[in-house]
Amino acid sequence: MERMKWRNGYLLLVSYLLYANWNPAYALILLGITAVTYLLARQFEGSRSRKKIIVGGAFLTLLPLLIFKYYNFINESVYALLSVVGLRFQLPGLNWAIPMGISFFTFQALGYLFDVYYKRISAEKDFLIYALFISFFPSIVAGPINKASFVIPQLRALRPYFNHSKAVEGMKMLLWGMFMKVVVADRLALYVDKVYSSYVNYSGVACFEASILYSIQIYADFAGYSLMAIGIGKTLGFELTENFRRPYFSYSVTDFWHRWHISLSAWLKDYVYIPMGGSRCSRLRCYWNILITFLVSGVWHGANWTYIIWGAIHGICQIIEKILGQQKCKYGIVGKMAKIAITFLVINFAWIFFRSSSIGDAVDFIDRFFDLTLPLIFEPVALIDIVFILWLFLADLLEELKPNHHLFFENKYAIVRYSSYIVVLLMIMLSGILSESTFIYAVF
Amino acid sequence: MPSFRSFVAKSLIFLVSFAFLDIVLGKSIIWMSLNAKGGDYGKCRYVCFESEEQCLVFGSSRAHCHYNPHILSDSLKLSCFNCGRDGAGIIQNYGKIRLVEKRRKPKIIIYDVFPIVDILTHCDNHRDLDLLRLYSDNDEIRNIVCQVDSDEKFKMYSNLYRVNGKYHNIIKDFILRKPLNESNGFFANNSKFDSLKINKIPQYKLEIDSIKVSYLRKMVAERRETNIIFVISPIWYGMNSKELNPLRQLCKENNLPLIDFSSDPKYLHHDEYFYDGAHLNAKGADEFTKDLICELRKKDLF
To answer: Searching chain A, which residue's CA lies closest to the CA of residue B130?
Structure first.
């Protein structure tokens, strides 16, 4: 156990050093949130004012997030609202960078606090283990948002120094995740950014094309990063929460949220939707709960009305599906394919708001799709990028048909496996965007 | 149960095999780029290692389709080649000029300046390194690449990295040998004016890129017998004159000519000469080249 302590200590040190490498001062915020939630969780034991502790604790935990991420947005929105009635009052803006991953580790810490409050788990006594849970470097920047009940037992357990099968699995995930990120996502970003930044210079067809490519880009970017994080965790011997499950094969928006950013939707379900009553209430109340949950999701994603609209679209779509009984798929193969296509178009439509810098831009962007005066000109996408998109699609399709079995990476013949590793690594080196790029979700 | 040692051993074998592949495949593709006879890489090879023309035009896509070398040749009585290349900024062009000057000294270099690739921070300098990495077996080119980004020193140990993003075009240019749709390097664009492209005029941050400016200065300082003429060719939506201040300063200090057509009323907002907001069409290019020659004669440069 002493050795385990040293190993966990070493991992904690590496996690904090990596985080501090970006900005040493913000590592203190991470430490602060860790310390606050650790101490407050321990206060729950035997306390009579649990409710006061959870309310205060939630506020303290969310405070850095509110300040760094939402202060300017709230300030500007209140100013805009007051201006309508002739009052011009605005607090000075903040020009601080948002601590990387703050939305993720804040929610992870808050989730732990709620779990202890609801007595789902007992408070962790070992600060080292708890701090490592919050700051674990593979997932701190962009998730997944792990549950304490899933990760902390792994940190406590006597784990072997090395697990061969996990290490091999982990390296495969890292390789494929990197392919998704630097080959598919970053290459598509070159095209998407060009069109979105000056969409008025492009035809409606080109704008629609860019919207489709953005849907693929954000999936490859976020899922790729998540896979890399889970892969690194696995190589170190840890299982992290699965975060994506081929979301564009969803047959409804409801199903989409069982496949996209699974850790966030689980968090929202457990700590927002269910405490509000979930579906164990009147129908109208249930719809309200869904809408609020997805508005919270929108707000979590960013300090802009576009994210809130994006969340609202998802919430409203799910309400409509519930009313029409369309959350599941009761149709044959053709019906299922039609539902998948329609769901993709709806999700794609919502992503336009997510990507645009303002609601006006999003509306203008969509408006161009239907402007028949514009020429029907596609912007050319490189053939090689179409090949990569198809490759990703086929890989996901095969996995959808036969889960947890990659045709090439898990082939029974070693020559096929190793050849596929080499081909993927070659594509990363030859076609990947290897200059500095960021993960889309790192800004959250 | 396979052990840690076997995992490490297999990983090392894999990495060594991949390193071998990196050398073989990477060097092969680099060799192809240095021996391509067609396409963009064939043109770059010709410019850097074979060109003998007395007058060379360098610059970005604007140089590529603005300067008609046949008109220049006829009027200046000098052989002329248009070395303009899409996206090429001062860092890339400086590297190419150094490779040319290793073999010989051209009589004139006409440098078409476009602030976003030659002066301002708007365009990432890594874009210019794309071509230069292929030639970085040359020490001087390698130094340029490493000066822009010191990490490149390590990244370029990988030959595959050096051909990243361009391997398919290099292979295509080497195998197909298809010449570009050009004449002496000049691309005459016969497209009609695309009014969509001027719906939104690009706005750039007026932030001077010290690295880009330093290469402009180097190019001037090392010119020796070569005459360098800086030209700002016409642009449909005009140019913010503040963008050109570092260049004006440089020309003033070195008594170099600067011929500025960016606010020439003959071209400003005249659709007939352009195919988009920043590029002349074939008619515009011929008109401009003739106007340039008049200016060169007026300034007694010929």
So the answer is: A435
